[in-house]
Each structure stands twice: as C-alpha cells, then as structure tokens.
TrEMBL record:
A Gene Ontology BP annotation from the UniProt entry: mRNA splicing, via spliceosome
Lineage of the organism: Eukaryota, Fungi, Dikarya, Ascomycota, Pezizomycotina
Region (Disordered): 338-364
Protein name: RRM domain-containing protein
Organism annotation: Lophiotrema nucula
Transmembrane segments: none
Matches recorded under PANTHER family: HIV TAT-SPECIFIC FACTOR 1, SPLICING FACTOR U2AF-ASSOCIATED PROTEIN 2
RRM domain mapped to chain residues: 104-194
Amino acid sequence: MATRVPFPEDVDTFGSDERISYSAADQTWLLVDEFGEEWEFNTVANKWFQPATDEQIAAMQGYNGDANGSDEETNAAEVNKKKRKAAAAASNAKKQVKKEPENRAVYVRNIPLDASREDIEETFGRYGGMIDQGIDGAKRVKMYADDQGNFNGEALIVFFKKDSVQQAIRMLDDFPFRIGDTNAANLRVEEADMSYKKNQDKSEIKFVRRDKKASERTRAELNRKLAEWSDDDEPAKELLPHNKYAQFAIIKKAFTLKEIEEDPQLVLDIKEDMREQAETCGEVTNCVLYDKESEGVLSIRFKDPRSAEEFVTKTNGKGYAGQKLHVYIPEDRFKFKKSGKEDGVDSDEEAERLERFGEELERA
C-alpha cells in the first residue's frame, strides 16, 4: 500500500512543493496529495486538514440529534453503539469522491500563434471579466507550448469570479480572436477541466512569497476594480485604507558598516546597483543609503506605488554581496540614521515636503 509523502508545515517552504498552490480569491493554501485528495492549511492551528463533506456533516448532525433526543433510560452500551455507527459513517464518507470546488477557469484553443500574453489578458479581461492574480501579483494565464517550446495556440485563463466562465464562453466562443480577422480560425472556448488545479507546473507555483499585508492589498485591489466595473452602486467591502508610504521600498541587509568604513566608494556603488534594479520596475524619484544603520538600510521612492510592489516581489529574498536582502513596503512613517554627507540626494522628509509643495502649486 502506497504511503503519503509528509506535508510541509512551514509556510515559507510551500512555494517549493509542487503539490501546493495558493488561491488568491479564497486566501487559502491548497494541497492535492498523491491520491487526488484535496487539503487546506489552517494557519491558526498550523496544520493541514480535509474540508468536511456534506455526508460527514449530515452524519454528525444525525448523531447529535439522536443523542440529544435520547431519554435517561438509554444505557451506555446503546450510546457507544451510536458513536461507533457515526464514526463508521464519517469514515466511509471520507472515502467517497469529494465535491469539486467551483470552477473559475476556461480552456481556449485556436489563439493566433503570434498573440502575446498581454493580448490574451486584454481580450479575456475585456469580454470575460477580471482575471485572477496569484500571490505574486501576476495574472493567472497559462500559455501552452509545443515540443519545440513555441506557443501552440492554447491557453488556460483563471478568472476572479466563477460567473466570468460562462460570460467568456458566450462572448468569445466561435468568434475570431481579432475582430475582422477572416484568415484565422475562430476561438474555441470551453469550461476548463478541474484537473488544472491538480496539475500546476512548477513555473506556476514557484513564486516569491509576499507578506500577509501585501496579499490583502492584492485582494483589495481586485475587489476595487470589480466594483468599478459593476453596474451596482454597492461599494466593495474589502477596501483597505490608503497607505501614503506605498511609493517607498525599504531594503535591508544590503551592506555592513564595516564594508563601507573600509571602502567609502561602496556607498555610491551600492546605491547605483539598487537604483538600477529599481528602475526596471518603474520611475525612481529618490534613493537614500543610511550609512549609520547596522542593518544595511536603503530606501527607494517610486513615482507609482505599483512599481514599489513589483520591486518588492522581484527583490525580496534575493542574494546580494553575500547577504539575503529583506525588502518591504513600510506601513507607517520610517526614520533611519545617516551621516548626511550624500551629495545631490534629498532626504525622505525633504522629498516629501517638496512633493506636498508641488501639489499645492497645482491646486493654486
């Protein structure tokens, strides 16, 4: 009899286990074991458990009802018999096929071979609805390849809401991918086989793990966008308050005090390295190195908060100069120590003051 491979219980290691995926919509870690059974991770108990089936719930409710209705004359043997019967029913229910979770994905064929990922996201986002995002912030679109590694015209798209599945089928099935394109075959859009949840490849699950607040912000942003698209006037219920420091990224473990004391030129080199990396994510308006902080701290200010989020995702946990970088977005005002000898770079407080002054000029 085959034995089940032990389940990891350290959240930091979940991304390296190909059996585990993260549902951004439910904010739940899911695991499909070797026998096809699905498990959920309880972050409070720090344990994996199988969700109760309808049969199990019915069996336990039936037992409780019988126990509560029994009179004082029911003897201990009868009670034990009912307990054994209920336990057996629950055990049998576990072996039955579990009810599949809701399907929020479509499988698409006949996509033009020259279509990009952005083209697919734009088309299905427009006609199907909001596409779900993974915990890394990337939209959940998987493009399949042939044996040579080239796109084969098939893709899997996971939506944020299950209603988008039928909407995408109605709006796009048997229609051209590009309006007016009579040379290409029409799209074939169908509800995806739920096995996609059990057969995610490693490229989908090896993402950079975000902290809880970042996950909440992603979820809130999706709800905000959904509310903007909806015809209903009811506001989204999961909006988070605006974080005025969301344009900043704080970097720690980028250097040691001993290193910059022995070679002052390192200050400029480190700043140049970090700024260059940051500019791959968006426009940078300020970069400050705090040469009096033992944790090796820098702050980077972006023009767009989304660039800061992308920078955190790309950089947090990466190695640099023999250390592992810790990168995050501050939730409140921050203040670190520096000598003030950096030429041509305004402090964070001065940059914030200048920005407020510019906003006042625009309003005048």
